[in-house]
Write a structure and sequence with these properties.
By secondary structure, this protein is an alpha/beta fold. 42% of the residues lie in helices and 15% in strands. It contains 17 helices and 13 strands. Strand 2 and strand 3 form a beta hairpin. The protein binds zinc ion.
């Protein structure tokens, strides 16, 4: 059994109500998940009420329109959780022995934050809350003291709301363009004797990890942060990039005895259609990465299934993407790689699925769990085409 068994919901790309989150969390508890990773801020919307910087929830929580997968919805879209609602979810989770891991993704994926605080960027230009999927140039400027002051304020607020041990600070997909053109960044890099932007990002991440550590908490980062050596050893790395440098770096990190969470995108990402990631494919994933030695295997804290929501905009879809696939992730988190038997698993999940249904949660109809080859190809092509449309 692994100590960390998580689901993640991205509430930035699409917003989900407290009632809906509770419905899913209730099902999670039934499946013995014990962590709810809550993705609360991204380019497409800020979702946390913030007394000290009210523009964050008043303005950065709203985008002017939505353009996901070529579908244009010409009306403002927004929403945020009040402090009372955040606390309500915390209590709800505590009652079910579930820890909440809030995520504030830095230094990239910060368009919403920068839309109201342009002074935290390299050039100070105003960005907008993004309306479509993508990786955007707006990043926090590691050379500006104000960035650390604001983040400290926001984290202090979060520390009072979320009493649990882990905080996710992102660190993925941070573009280098603005840093390369910023005189302040150039000057700081020179002072630090740093000549690569990967290292420069680590300087920034390590400062935030230190901030989290001072509060007695542990930071989690995406495995993008392993592109250069020097990530603070206290950090937990979440493995999502499964190819190239990302994969080998995670292996090296774990084999050195440092902690990892496994959420390989081709197996555990719940936003992929069943035609690409069938229930059987999720179930058959053997926890681990090729190249792990004994120490590497022992460094695995656990598993997580994230649902990114660019293309998931309603409760039923969100639930159907999770269930029944999340049951396979829960099974792996609970039983590890022992006695894998897909047929038996299909029999075993009948009762939990019935109980989930009784809670009002939808699961994917059985005929869709393991689609045939033609349906799989169609779904994969649709998924790829949708991702290309802006
Ligand atoms: Zn800069």
């Amino acid at each position: 059994m692994f100590g960390y068994r998580a689901i993640m919901i991205d509430c930035s790309r699409h917003f989900f109500s407290v009632e809906e989150l509770k419905r899913i969390i209730d099902s999670m508890a039934l499946l013995k998940f014990n962590v709810f990773h809550w993705h609360l801020a991204d380019d497409q919307g800020w979702r946390i009420e913030c007394e000290k910087y009210p523009e964050l929830h008043e303005k950065a929580s709203v985008r002017e329109s939505s353009d996901f997968g070529g579908v244009h919805i010409n009306k403002p879209y927004g929403g945020y959780y009040t402090v009372a609602q955040l606390r309500d979810i915390v209590e709800f989770c505590k009652d079910r022995y579930i820890d909440v891991v809030p995520e504030l993704d830095v230094p990239g994926h910060c368009s919403a934050l920068l839309s109201v605080m342009p002074e935290l960027s390299c050039r100070g230009g105003r960005t907008r809350v993004q309306t479509h999927q993508g990786i955007f140039d707006g990043v926090l400027c590691p050379a500006k003291d104000r960035v650390y002051e604001v983040l400290e304020d926001i984290f202090q607020m979060l520390f009072e709301i979320f009493p649990f041990g882990y905080y996710h600070i992102g660190g993925d997909e941070a573009p280098r363009k603005n840093w390369s053109e910023c005189p302040d960044c150039r000057k700081l890099m020179e002072q630090l004797g740093i000549d690569s932007f990967d290292e420069y990002q680590l300087y920034f991440m390590n400062r935030i990890i230190e901030l989290i550590g001072k509060a007695g908490k542990t930071a989690i980062v995406w495995n993008d942060c392993l592109k250069s050596n020097g990530l603070d050893k206290s950090a937990v790395v979440q493995h999502w990039m499964i190819t190239g440098k990302g994969k080998s770096a995670t292996v090296k990190w774990a084999n050195a005895g440092r902690k990892v969470i496994l959420s390989p995108l081709d197996r555990y990402y719940m936003d992929y259609p069943y035609g690409m990631t069938s229930l059987k494919k999720v179930y058959n994933y053997k926890i681990g990465i090729k190249g792990f030695d004994l120490r590497g295997r022992e460094s695995v804290l656990g598993v997580e299934c994230p649902a990114w929501t660019e293309y998931i905009d309603d409760n039923t879809s969100l639930e159907q993407m999770f269930f029944p696939r999340a049951l396979a992730v829960a099974d792996a988190g609970w039983c590890g790689n022992e006695d894998k038997n897909f047929r038996k698993f299909l029999k075993d999940i009948k009762i939990p699925l019935r109980l989930i249904k009784r809670k009002g949660v939808h699961y994917m109809p059985r005929r869709e769990w393991v689609p045939g080859i033609i349906s799989s190809v169609v779904q994969a092509v649709k998924f790829a085409v949708r991702g290309l449309k802006k």
